[in-house]
Amino acid sequence: MSAxxxxxxxxxxxxxxxxxxxxxxxxxxxxxxxxxxxxxxxLVWSAGQRExxxxxxxxxxxxxxxxxxxxxxxxxVVIEEPEAGLHPNGIGAVINLVMELLLRGYRVCVSTHxxxxxxxxxxxxxxxxxxxxxxxxxxxxxxxATHKTKQLAKAALAGDFRTYxxxxxxxxxxxxxxxxxSEDIVEGGWGGLTEFSGRVGDIVADVANRNEKS
Length: 214
Hints:
Blueprint: H1 3-14, E1 18-22, E2 29-33, E3 40-41, H2 47-62, E4 76-80, H3 88-103, E5 107-111, H4 115-129, H5 134-141, H6 147-158, E6 164-166, E7 172-174, H7 185-188, H8 195-213
Parallel strand pairs: 4-5
Antiparallel strand pairs: 1-2, 2-3, 6-7
């Protein structure tokens, strides 16, 4: 995995620790190792780290470091809730890897309950429709400008992003525009993911207005 994609993972998911293979107990296991102190076994990792590492191993396998760009036996990749247990910056680091999958020619399907994930895809669609540049994508994803990341940004701008809402009654809605100003409450509220924060903002505004009048 390229260093420019690995750096955000190290910073926002693993912190000062490195993911290593430990064989000191005559049993191979994954541990988190810092420069000081004993290695940390799986059971004491954070929930986000425990959820993410299996995904990381799968992504690592799908993104071979050799001249072969992808695993040709697979056309599609399905990722379920990549945000599980992660800080928003960590979620962004994972989405960088999704963009790398797209760059290498995979079709990717992501299920999510995270407004942060939809923020990114809404912004990418906005860039596509409003002459966004690769530098805008890099700024959005928090990546430094290198030959590798510029390729990734161009692939993102060329991507065909679709968003679907699965209602409780079994119906599926295409809400790909993700227009926050849409009169369609499902599209404007991103399938209900922004409903709570919107309601909080409205209530806070009401209290502020009432306080000014008193």
